[in-house]
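Quick note —
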Amino acid sequence: MRGAGTDAGPGVRPAVAVGDRGEVVTRVGAFRLVPVRIERDLPLIVRWMNDPAVAAFWDLAGPASVTERHLRQQCASGGHSVPCLGVLEGRPMSYWEIYRADLDPLARHYPARPHDIGVHLLIGGAADRGRGLGGPLLEAVAELVLDGSPACDRVVAEPDLRNVPSVAAFLSAGFRFSAELDLPAKRAALMIRERHTSDRR
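Predicted structure written out below.
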C-alpha cells in the first residue's frame, strides 16, 4: 500500500504534522525525523532499497529512477504522505513514510477512523538491523505523530505478516495486533496504537 495515493476530495488538506520537529530522546539515542529532500537523499535511499532484505518487502529495487519516482509521488501528495529520514545520533539510518491512513486506499481494507495516521518504516543499513532499534524508534515516532496531530486518535501500520521482526518491533512499541488484512500486494498485520486518554489535550 506504500504510496498508493490519496482518496482526499477537492479542498481537503490532509497535512500530516511531522516535519523536522527537533530531536527526541529515546532509549537508543537522540532521534529526529527530517523530511526527505530528493536531491540530497536519493542515493542513500536507493542503496537501502536495493538491499535484498529491504527489497523483499518494499518492491523498489532497481535503478535510481524507480525510487525517485516513488519519492516524487510521496512529496507531491499535498501532505497526505510525508517521507522522512530517521536520524539517530546525527546519522541517517532509517526511512519513514507518515501518511493519512483514512485518506489512503488502505482505508478500504480496515475500519478506518477520521484522522488515522499510518506509518511505514525501513531500517536502512544491515548493521542497524537486529539491534532492537525498531521498537524504540517506532514508539518515539508514534508519540511525535500524536503530539503533532491533536485530531488523530491512533497510529496504524500494516507490515507484511512474513516480516516477523517488523511485527515484533511494532508490538514492543505499544501497538496491538488488530487483524490480518488481505491487501493487493501482501497479507498484512494491522497494528494499532491508540492515543491514551491521559494524552488528550
